[in-house]
Every structure is written in C-alpha cells, then in structure tokens.
Amino acid sequence: MDESLSPQVEALIPLLAAFDAVAAEGHVTRAAQRLGVPQSSLSRRLRAVEQAVGVKLFQPVGRRIALTAAGQELFDRTRGLVQALGDAVDVVRSDADPDSGLVRFGFPYTLGPVSVPSLLADFHAHAPRIRLHLVQAHGSALVEMVRDGRLDLAVTIPAPDDLPAIILGVQRLHLYVADAHPLASRTEVDLADLAGEPFIANPPTYHLRGLFDSWCAEAGFTPRVGFEITEFETLRALVAQNLGIAVLPAPELPHPGLTRVTLTGARDRSIGLVSGRHRPTPAVARLRDHIAAHAPTYLGQARDYS
Predict the structure, then answer these.
(1) Whole-model pTM?
(2) Residue 3's pLDDT band (cuts 50, 70, 90)
(3) Domain 7-94: assigned CATH number
(4) pLDDT for 70-95, tens place per residue?
(5) 101-306 has which fold?
(6) Which pairs with CB-CB distance under 8 Å and at least 24 residues apart come from 156-159?
C-alpha cells in the first residue's frame, strides 16, 4: 500500500499555520501579528493554500476576511491538527530545557491590580527564563480560550465543570454603595430589601452578572440596572458618584467614596486554576504548580479599601 502523501497535502503542511491563524482571527493584520510575520508574507501563504486546495477559501467582508463554505469545512477539519502539532513541538522543545518556554496565561479583571501581578512577580523571581503571554478577560471568555487552546492556564471565577481545575480559594461578594447613600449606615442588608434600588452591573455575559441576576430572582425581583459596564474600576467610580449600587468583590486598590455593606446569605464564588486537556509543557506545569502552592498568600491581598 502506498502511504506517501499526495502533492496537495505535502504543499499544505507548511501553510496550515497561516490558514489556521487567519481563519481564527478573521483578519489578516491580526493574524500576521499573532504569527510574527509580515502581512505581505501571510497573504502569499494564503494564496498558496488556495492554490494547493484548488478552491476559494476566503472572501472579504468589509475590513475583515471570512471563510467560504469550503474554507469553513477545511478549518473545522484541520484546526485540531494544527493545535496538536503545536502542542507536540512545544513539549519536545521545552523538555530539553524545563527552565524556559512560553506560557499563555489568563486571569480575570477582579484580580488584576494586585493579586495576580504579585503572584507572577514571585514566579518570575524563581523562573526568570520562562516567558509569559498574559491575557485579561472576564471568566467565560477565559474558559473559552483555554478550551480552544489559545491559553494554557487561566485563573477563572468560577472554575468550569468540563476542564481540569484546581480550586485556589473563594471570592466573597458584598454590596457597595456611595458614602452618602442611606444604606451606607447599615452593616448588613438582605438582598430582598434592595428591590427598589437602581443598580450598576456588568453586561449579562459576565458570570458575576448572571449570579447577581439569579440571586435577585431568588429574592423575588428583577434588578433595575441603569448602567452596564465591563470595567470594574469605572463601575466602582460610578457607584461612588451615587449613580447606583452594586454587588462586587472587594477592591484591590483604594477606592474613596465607597462603603461596603455585608449581604446576608452565602455570597461566595470559587476561584479556580483551569488548564486544558492536552499534556502541559514543563513550563506550563511549573507555573501551574507555583500558583497552586502560593495562591492562598497572594489571592488574599484583596482588602476592604472602602
């Protein structure tokens, strides 16, 4: 039996990374930046892919580039192969030098100012040759990036059920109001008592917003959200301006104008260190083990600055 590759497959193998990057990004410039190659070189590789396959794979859509039906079919069938090949090369390379390598690491906005940077600084002191590619996003976006291989590790709140995870601790949620708000004199409040209050919250795609909405539903009301915003520090600033109240984790930096009020009931959510299902490189395993061992010290740095 002849097991040699067809000329078309042989031509495609060195070009699949280019195809995969553009298909995933939907943008030639961003894909070129991701691969670290000139845009002109990437465009030539795309034309070579189409020539090897013999069909049109991409079509322009405004300033972006989209897959044709044939391109989508090829992407669905090859994206796992490209990731598996990249993982294999990463493992082989890093096995030769476990003190170096690249780790793609993500963490949530609520742990950005102090906790995670301090934890990473401590890791860098122990492993200065390991490079870190950092991504900050909300929880569901981080989980999706781990699932599809764009991230090796991520701290997420909470950890998903379908990926390997180490529970690092819990994050307590409180009610935050402006110092001048009538509730600022309270030490504790039941969520049901807030039915008539205007709230400031994240968009519905955020886990914190979904949790908040579910708690309000259990309390018998739908929250009246006057402001939606993705950025937590700005959200706190809006609360300090007395434009609404919010359910949030404790800030990691001083934020004048805020008063924290304890919410009755169990108001915690878990903090997890999530990894993909493929075999980690030694560099990834080293960061994973360091975070698991030292997270209780650093994730406890969020203090009540209100």
Answers:
(1) 0.66
(2) low
(3) 1.10.10.10
(4) 989 988 888 777 777 777 776 666 65
(5) D-Maltodextrin-Binding Protein; domain 2 (3.40.190)
(6) 156/106, 156/108, 156/271, 156/272, 156/274, 157/108, 157/110, 157/111, 157/207, 157/208, 157/269, 157/270, 157/271, 157/272, 158/207, 158/269, 158/270, 158/271, 158/272, 159/270, 159/271, 159/272, 159/273, 159/274
Label residue 7 by pLDDT band (50, 70, 90): low
For 136: left if phi > 0, alpha if psi spans -120 to 50, otherwise beta; the answer is beta
Number of residues in the chain = 306
25 half-sphere exposure, CB direction, 13 A CA radius: 17
3-state secondary structure of 120: helix
Boundaries of every domain in the chain: 7-94, 101-306
Express each pLDDT in 25-39 by its tens digit.
Answer: 888 888 888 888 898
